[in-house]
Each structure stands twice: as C-alpha cells, then as structure tokens.
UniProtKB/TrEMBL annotation, chain A:
Span of domain LUD: 112-203
Entries under SUPFAM superfamilies matching the protein: NagB/RpiA/CoA transferase-like (SSF100950)
Name listed for the protein in its UniProt record: Lactate utilization protein C
Domain of life: Bacteria
Automatic annotation (TrEMBL), chain B:
Pfam families membership: Fer4_8, LUD_dom, LutB_C
Domain 4Fe-4S ferredoxin-type: 308-338
Annotated protein name in UniProt: DUF3390 domain-containing protein
Species of origin: Micromonospora echinofusca
Residues of the signal peptide: none
Length: 206, 485
C-alpha cells in the first residue's frame, strides 16, 4: 500500500464527526469612521514611515523619499508619472532583462511599488505581484521599500481585503511594518532580513 | 500510524521538571518572558471587538476540517498539483525524512536553508539530513541561537525563550572572529544585526529551502507561512527548490477561511495586531520564486489522534503557543521538561496522542498540569485542554487496571469509610487525634511538608493539609443542639 492510500484509509477510518456549519458572526465588514487615519496610525505604530499626499504632489513626495544619489529599482508596470520628480538612476525590472539578486542586494538600493490592497485595522499592505509590484524578490532583497497606497485601496478589516484580491493564487505577501524580531527577551527589534526601512505613501484619491 | 521522531519524552515529567527547577537563571528568564508576552496578548485581544466570534468560527472551521480531512487533502493535492507543485505523503517521521533527503539529494545540494517549522522539528529532519551529509541552516533568529548553542527549542514560537540577552550574546559571539566578538554588546538590535550579517550570503546563494506551513488551502492548493523577520520570505522566494513539510491537519477548506486565522494567530502568538510578513503561494509561478515546489503531507500519529473522540480536538491547534505563556507549570519548568518538540499544555495532550501512551515517558505528560484552565481560556481555537488532560489520565489508568495500585487501594478504603456516617465520623475523630501532635509541629502553616511512607508519595510535590480542630458538622451541632441529634 502506498503512503498516500494508507494515510487516507486511516483518516477515513478514524473520522467520526460530521462536517459542520461554520458560524460567521464575526465582523466581516467593520465600519471604521476615519479609515485612513486608523491605517496611518497603525503603520506608524509598527515604525513604518508614513506620508500623506494628494495625487498632484505624489512625484514630489516620492522624490523626497528616494535620494537621487541612490539606486532606485521599480517593477515593470510602475506608472511612469510617479517618477516625474526623479533625476537619479532608475532600474526597471525586465528592461532589458530581469534584475539579479546581486543587483538588488547592493548597498543603497531602494524599491518603489504600488500594492493590491491596504488594511486599516492592522496597518497591513498586501502585495499580489501585479505589474506595479513585480516579482516577490523586488520588495524583499533591497534594504528600503517605498510603497504607494491609494486611499481607495484601503479596506477596514482583513475579510474585506481578502475579498478584494483579484486572484488568490498569485503569490501574496502581507506586509505589516518593516521586518522585525522579538526573539531576544521579547524585545521588538526592527530590521532583520527583509527591508529595514518601509515608507508608505498614502495618496488621497477619494 | 504511531508517531515517531522528537515527540517522545525520555524522562518522566516529574524527574525532568525537578532538574529544570534547579536552574534559577532559567526560571528568572522564563518568568520575565512569559509575563511580557501574555500581557501583550491580553492587551491586543482586548482591542478586537469580535474576538469571541472569531474564536467560534476558527473552532468550527477546524472541526469541519477534521470531519472531512481525506476529501480536503485530495482536493489540496489536486489543486497544488495543477499549479505545479508535487505532493508527497509520509506515514511517520522516518518516511518524511527519507522523502525530504531524497529530494535534496536529487538537486545535488549539500546545504539547505530552513524556515522555522514545528513539523520539521517534530520529525528530526536536521539530524536526518546531517546523517546524509546535508547541512541544514536554521534561519529564524531564535532557531539559529538554539542551533549554535547545540540546544533544542524550548517554546513553540520563541525557541530561545530560556536564554536572556547576555547568554545570547555569548552564544553568537562564539561564532565570530575574536575582534568582532569582543565588540559585541548584548543590545537586541546589535544581536539581530549579527544574524542578518551571518545569513545574508547564505540566502542569496542557497539552492534548496525547507519550510513548514501554518495553513494549506484545499480550494486553491495554496500554502501559508506566517513570520516576522523576513527569513521566511528569503527561503520561500530565492532558492530554486522549495520543500514544504505539512501536517495533514493544517488544511483549511477555502481561501476565505484565512480571514479568520490570520486574525487569530498573530494576536494569540506574539500579541501583535498583525505579524510583519505573511506569505501565500500556490505551486510554481514562472519567473518568480522557486522553479520546483514539493509538499510532504505528514501523518505521524495524527490519524490515531483523530480516532479519539475527546482527544482529537488537539488537532485544531494552530501552534500559537498562547497556552504555554499562561501556564503556571510551563512558567516554572520551561519547555525542555516536556521532552518533546511540543511543550506546555498543548504538548502535554499532543505528544502522548501522537506517539500513543507507550511512547517513552509520554504517559506522564497529562499530569504536568494543575488543571487551572488558563490554557483553555486563551486558546484561539478553544481546545479544551483540561478536558483532554483528564481524559488521557483516565485512559492511562484504564490501561493499567490489571496492575496493583496503592492509589486505587487507598481510594477503595476511603469509599468504604465514606459510605457510612458512623464510620466517617469515627475516621475523622481518629484523623484529628493522630494529627494533634503534628499540628504542634506544623505550626501556623496548618500543613505537613513530608508524610512517612507510603503517604510520602503524596507529599513529594505538595504539602498535606492537617484536619481542622473541629468539623463544620460538630460546630453546627454545638450551636443548635436542638436541631441536631
């Protein structure tokens, strides 16, 4: 008997409970009065940098966060007008070829992306590898990640955010603040293996 | 299939616990750490208005899963396979280790990077790989500390919880060049920086990664890893080959179900509203991440556990470790006393069920509890741990009915005495008379530390109370001589 057949047979024999009905009485669409205010507050609580702006001033704000003497990496589908304020070098993944891990791991590299959805209550941004976010390693290996979130992308709670994802089988990364550890005496330390700095730019497009 | 691997206590719990209790530094570290983490959990949970409804949903989803595990596993296998993952099955620890070892060998790599995973700790994968000439590098900071110290984890979530910052400094310094070691302070930020420095190159060049999964989604074939440091993302994204070892009970029916567990788990585990990073991936994504993804579905005693009507609720566990942090026994003895990958209250009910009662000294683990119920209160999937502890004690006693037991003899005698009012009163009088000299010695504490044999078995771990000078019945009769004859 194969391991598969054996395990399935044992599980079939062991089972006694009937499949049950799941009560979904929890709050699937919580109402948050000041959605963006809560989102910003929670992000700041995780020690992410948070910046609010109107769409007209976005290139200016981004230029301020991404110094011209550093290397900026962007995913293939990043809107070109976001970079209107930038004079320094920009490397676009996929043009001409995919960027290597070594490119991304170099000192002083920043990456600029959009996101799929934001979650106010938990201060979470969800990346789903859409063209304005790119491959997973782009937002992982560089030491500095700047993420643009449009106010209309922010949902109150996690259930709403999952429901808004276009395709759950794309690789998903839920990011809540910069990389951190609490392994030493439960003291939270930001910046271990992921980007040590996370800046979130919230664009008021409502 | 009876579970094997690192889930079997070598020593009876009381023996192992006494050893740990002798370490004052350990108890000091544990007391501080468990207090910090449980206070943080309480504060965060208090901010979630629908917490109890989420717990109820999480419990029901897991019960539903246990009711149709075979179908859900087949659905997961089909969906993950369609997305490009290869699914393997393993009956026990040895079989799982063999599957993983063969997969690593096929790549030609002699080193793997690892994401912290209870399943791979459970099956003793690192040791099995080492025996095959493959080195496994733990990349979670706490796992790395434990590995460098030649130690074993003592907590599900914070494996190095038994060390303080000074001890961790010394462990990390031992692996550094002398000049760097001399400059190393015990500031947690500096120590975390050492981990980054040590592992960065390993991540960028590793060809094979091994991970576990917090959840496996049947509907989509997706796997979920919940973490903090980013070492998980590194391992899941950069190497060419990814091997994921997953207990069969980790499956959840739908992607939507994650909306419950991704709220319950971080709050219960680290007391954060949300952990820094959660990765969800489905099979292979061309041009992004590993080119080859393997999933090893592990039984290792889970089907046996599922067969127990009362005990099966232990399979709802999402490994948050909230029960460890609130347990008055764990707080004193730490994780190593339980002798298994799974310590604390959940370990006391999981380890003996996975191995069966004859697994080493696992039979003693259900007694490693005061039955205070704090673990049940905090469990995000409402595992009634005290109920299972009592059930397993009962099963243990039933299995040994044919052997003489002093406890059973004593209880039988007591039952005879208590069945008759006159016998009971006479026994009380006799006990009081016998205790009179002891009361003078016992003094104000009103108890005796050590009774003579055979009653000494009772007083090894507790004081024996002395009978009071007067019973309530006597006191009442003295006040109301008319009403009482």
């Amino acid at each position: 008997m194969t391991a598969r057949a054996d395990i399935l047979a044992r599980l079939r024999a062991a089972r006694a409970t009937a499949p049950g009905v799941v009560p979904r009485d929890y709050d699937r669409a919580p109402v948050v009065a000041d959605l963006i205010g809560v989102f910003v507050d929670r992000l700041a609580d995780y020690r992410a940098g948070v910046h609010r702006t109107g769409s007209d001033r976005l290139p200016e704000v981004l230029a301020g966060l991404l110094p011209d003497n550093g290397v900026l990496v962007v995913p293939p589908g990043l809107p070109a007008d976001w970079l209107a304020g930038r004079a320094g070098p920009v490397r676009r993944d996929g043009t001409p070829g995919p960027l290597s891990v070594t490119d991304l791991a170099a000192d002083g590299v920043s990456v600029l992306t959009g996101c799929a959805v934001g979650v106010a209550r938990t201060g979470t941004i969800v990346l789903d590898c859409a063209p304005d976010q790119g491959r997973r390693l782009l937002t992982l290996v560089p030491d500095h990640h700047v993420c643009v979130v449009r106010a209309t992308q922010v949902t109150a709670g996690l259930p709403g955010a999952l429901a808004r994802l276009a395709d759950p089988t794309r690789p998903l990364t839920f990011v809540s603040g910069p990389s951190a550890t609490s392994d030493i005496e439960l003291t939270r330390v930001e910046g271990v293996h992921g980007p040590r700095r996370l800046d979130v730019v919230v664009v008021d497009d409502r | 299939m009876t579970g094997t691997g690192r889930i079997t206590a070598a020593l009876p719990f009381p023996v192992a616990a006494r050893r740990q209790l002798a370490d004052g530094q350990l108890r000091d570290n544990l007391r501080r750490a468990t207090r910090t983490i449980r206070d943080r959990r309480a504060r965060t949970v208090a901010q979630v208005p629908d917490w109890e409804a989420l717990r109820a949903a999480g419990t029901a989803i897991k019960d539903d899963v246990l009711g149709r595990l075979p179908e859900l596993l087949e659905q997961f296998e089909a969906a993950a396979g369609a997305a490009g993952a290869q699914v393997h099955w393993a009956r026990d620890a040895a079989e799982a280790c063999a599957v993983v070892t063969d997969l690593v060998r096929a790549t030609g790599a002699d080193e793997v990077v690892k994401v912290k995973s209870m399943a791979t700790q459970e099956i003793g994968l690192n040791e099995a790989l080492a025996a095959a000439g493959i080195s496994a590098v733990e990349t979670d900071l706490a796992e790395l500390i434990v590995q460098l110290a030649g130690d074993t984890p003592s907590h599900i979530l914070v494996p190095a919880i038994h060390y303080n910052r000074r001890q961790i400094r010394d462990i990390l310094a031992a692996g550094l060049p002398a000049a760097d070691a001399a400059r190393l302070t015990d500031d947690p930020a500096v120590l975390a920086e050492v981990a980054r420095y040590r592992l960065r190159q390993r991540f960028l060049t590793a060809r094979v990664a091994v991970c576990g999964a917090n959840f496996a989604v049947a509907e989509t074939g997706s796997l979920v890893v919940v973490e903090s440091e980013g070492n998980g993302r590194m391992c899941l994204t950069l190497p060419e080959t990814l091997i994921c070892v997953v207990g069969v009970e980790k499956v959840v029916p739908t992607f939507t179900d994650l909306e419950v567990f991704l709220q319950l788990l971080p709050a219960s585990a680290t007391g954060e509203r949300m952990n820094p990073y959660t990765s969800v991936w489905t099979g292979v994504r061309p041009g992004d991440g590993p080119r080859s993804v393997h999933v090893v579905l592990l039984d290792n005693g889970r089907s046996d556990t599922l067969a127990d009507r009362v005990g099966r609720q232990a399979l709802r566990c999402i490994r948050c470790s909230a029960c460890l942090n609130v347990c008055p026994v764990y707080e004193q003895v730490g994780g190593h006393a339980y002798g298994s990958t799974y310590p604390g209250p959940i370990g006391a009910i999981l380890s003996p069920q996975l191995t069966g009662p004859d697994g080493g000294a696992n039979r003693t683990l259900p007694y490693a509890s005061t039955l205070c119920g704090a673990c049940y209160d905090v469990c995000p999937v409402r595992i009634n741990i005290p109920e299972v502890l009592v059930h397993l004690r009962q099963v243990g006693v039933d299995a040994r009915r044919d052997r003489p037991s002093p406890e059973r003899a004593a209880l039988r005698a007591m039952s005879w005495v208590m069945r008759d009012r006159r016998r009971y009163r006479a026994a009380l009088r006799a006990a009081r008379r016998g205790a009179a000299p002891l009361r003078r010695v016992g003094g104000r504490r009103g108890g005796v530390r050590r009774l003579p044999w055979p009653l000494s078995a009772w007083t090894t771990a507790r004081d024996a109370p002395l009978p009071p000078g007067q019973t309530f019945g006597e006191w009442w009769a003295g006040r109301n001589p008319e009403a009482h004859r």
